[in-house]
Q: What sequence folds into this?
C-alpha cells in the first residue's frame, strides 16, 4: 500500500472545549467537519499544561522529567548575534540557540527514516528555531514562542525578519504552497499555528473575523470570581466587559485558524490527495478563559494548576482510506501515545524501555475501535514539582510547591470543585494514586531532569538543565491579588 501523506496541524493554547462541536458559539465549520467525518477524541491529554514542555513530550513521547524542558522557553530559541539588528532587542536574553531535543528520538526521526518529504510551517518553540532540523525540506518557523499577529517575526528557510501579514494567513499560505509543490511524493507537513495564543486585543486580529462575533453573547462561559492564585501576567477578564472583549479576540483567532484548515483541505482536494492523506489536529495544551476563575493555562495560577481545562486538548484524526469514519473515542489518551502510534501505523519497531516512553499505541481506536481500556499507566501531567495522575474517575494532584495536594472524584464532581485529599472516605484511593504517581515517575524520569528538583513558576526557562539542582528558570511571577488595580 502506498504510504499516505500526513498533515499534522497543531494549535496553541486551545482547550478541548474550544471547538464549535463543544462550544456552539465558536465558529469552526472545517474542524467540526473533520471531527464528524473522522475519529474524535473526547479525553485527550497533554503531558504538561504549557507550550514548550508539552510540545517536547508530544514529539518525543517522554514526560518533561525525561527530556528536561519544564517551562516555556524564554531562552535558547535563537543566537541573538546572528539576527538582524531589528530583531536583537526582542531576543536580548537568547544569547545562544540550544537544541533541547539533541540525542532524543522523535517522531520526526521516524518520518525521516520512512522517506517522507517533510515540511514545518509555524511555531517550533523547542529550541534553535533558525536551524532546519534533519529531514526537513521546508522550514518556515516563528523565531520564538509568541508574536504580534499582524507583525510576526519569522525564519523562512534561513531568512529572518518581520512580516506585515496576519500570521495565521501567512502560515496557511506557506502550508498550501508546500502541498501544491509536492503532490506526487509522500509528504509529512507539520502546520503549527500560533492561534489562539494571546494577544487577544482586537487590533491584533482580522476585522472581518471579529465582526462574525458582534452579536455573540458569550453565554457558554459565565463570569466567575478570579481564582485566588491567578497570576498577573495573563490577560485577565476580571470584569464582564473585559471578559467578553478577550473571548471575542480568542474566538476570532480560532475561526481564522479554522479558515486556514479549510484552505489546506481544499489544497488536498485540488491535488487529488484526499484519499491518500491522513490529517491530524491537536492542541498543544489546554486553556482556561474563566473556567475555575482562571485566565491562562497551567501557569495561569501559581502554584500551577492541573484542571482538566488546562490539560485536555482537542484531538481529531481524519483519513477516509485509513481511518474509520464518524467515531468518538472516550478512552483516556495522551500526547505520550502519539509516537508509539506512529511507529505502529508505519510498521516500525516499538520503543525500547530505555527510551523512557510511558505511552502506548492507540492505533486500534483509529482503525476498528475498542471498548473501554484499562491502561497499564494512567494519564500523567507535570509542571515542575506539580504533578498529576488521572484515571477515568479520579484525579490526584501532588503540589510540590506548597503542599496543597488535591484529590477529585470526577464522577460526582466533574468541575473539580471539592478537594477530597483530607477526606477519610477517600484515603485508600488517595494513597494508591500517590504511590502509583511516585512509582511511575521514578520509572520514566532521568535524575538530571526530575521535575521535583526544579522550581519553574511559569515565567519561563532560559536554558538547558546541565547539572542536578541547576536553576534555569525565570522568577518573575506576580499574583493578581498582590497588585493594585
A:
Amino acid at each position: 500500500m502506498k504510504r499516505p501523506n500526513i498533515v499534522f496541524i497543531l494549535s496553541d493554547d486551545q482547550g478541548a472545549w474550544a471547538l464549535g462541536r463543544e462550544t456552539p458559539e465558536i465558529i469552526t465549520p472545517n474542524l467540526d467537519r473533520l471531527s464528524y467525518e473522522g475519529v474524535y477524541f473526547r479525553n485527550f491529554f497533554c503531558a504538561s499544561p504549557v507550550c514548550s514542555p508539552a510540545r517536547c513530550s508530544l514529539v518525543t513521547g517522554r514526560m518533561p522529567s525525561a527530556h528536561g524542558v519544564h517551562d516555556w522557553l524564554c531562552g535558547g530559541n535563537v543566537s541573538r548575534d546572528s539576527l538582524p539588528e531589528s530583531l536583537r532587542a526582542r531576543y536580548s536574553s537568547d544569547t545562544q540557540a540550544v537544541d533541547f531535543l539533541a540525542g532524543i528520538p522523535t517522531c520526526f526521526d521516524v518520518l525521516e527514516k520512512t522517506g517522507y518529504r517533510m515540511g514545518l510551517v509555524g511555531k517550533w518553540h523547542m529550541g534553535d528555531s533558525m536551524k532546519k532540523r534533519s529531514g526537513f525540506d521546508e522550514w518556515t518557523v516563528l523565531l520564538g514562542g509568541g508574536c504580534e499577529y499582524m507583525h510576526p517575526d519569522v525564519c523562512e528557510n534561513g531568512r529572518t525578519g518581520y512580516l506585515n501579514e496576519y500570521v495565521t494567513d501567512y502560515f496557511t499560505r506557506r502550508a498550501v504552497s508546500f502541498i501544491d509543490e509536492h503532490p506526487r511524493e509522500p509528504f509529512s507537513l507539520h502546520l503549527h499555528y500560533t492561534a489562539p495564543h494571546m494577544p487577544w486585543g482586537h487590533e491584533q486580529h482580522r476585522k472581518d473575523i471579529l465582526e462574525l462575533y458582534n452579536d455573540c453573547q458569550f453565554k457558554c462561559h459565565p463570569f466567575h470570581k478570579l481564582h485566588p492564585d491567578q497570576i498577573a501576567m495573563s490577560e485577565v477578564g476580571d470584569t464582564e466587559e473585559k471578559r467578553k472583549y478577550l473571548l471575542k479576540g480568542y474566538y476570532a483567532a480560532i475561526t481564522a485558524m479554522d479558515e486556514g484548515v479549510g484552505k489546506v483541505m481544499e489544497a488536498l482536494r485540488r491535488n487529488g490527495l484526499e484519499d491518500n492523506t491522513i490529517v491530524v489536529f491537536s492542541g498543544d495544551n489546554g486553556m482556561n478563559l474563566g473556567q475555575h476563575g482562571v485566565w491562562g493555562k497551567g501557569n495561569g495560577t501559581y502554584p500551577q494548576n492541573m484542571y482538566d481545562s488546562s490539560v485536555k486538548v482537542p484531538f481529531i484524526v481524519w483519513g477516509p482510506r485509513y481511518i474509520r469514519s464518524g467515531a468518538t473515542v472516550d478512552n483516556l489518551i495522551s500526547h505520550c501515545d502519539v509516537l508509539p502510534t506512529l511507529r505502529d501505523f508505519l510498521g516500525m519497531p516499538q520503543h525500547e524501555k530505555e527510551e523512557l516512553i510511558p505511552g502506548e499505541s492507540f492505533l486500534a481506536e483509529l482503525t476498528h475501535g475498542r471498548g473501554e481500556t484499562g491502561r497499564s499507566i494512567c494519564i500523567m501531567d507535570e509542571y515542575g514539582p506539580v504533578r498529576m495522575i488521572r484515571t477515568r474517575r479520579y484525579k490526584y494532584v501532588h503540589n510540590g510547591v506548597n503542599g496543597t495536594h488535591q484529590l477529585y472524584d470526577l464522577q460526582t464532581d466533574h468541575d473539580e470543585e471539592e478537594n477530597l485529599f483530607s477526606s477519610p472516605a477517600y484515603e485508600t484511593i488517595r494513597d494508591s494514586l500517590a504511590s502509583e504517581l511516585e512509582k511511575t515517575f521514578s520509572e520514566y524520569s532521568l535524575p538530571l531532569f526530575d521535575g521535583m528538583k526544579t522550581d519553574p513558576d511559569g515565567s519561563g526557562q532560559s536554558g538547558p538543565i546541565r547539572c542536578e539542582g541547576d536553576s534555569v528558570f525565570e522568577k518573575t511571577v506576580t499574583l493578581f491579588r498582590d497588585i493594585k488595580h
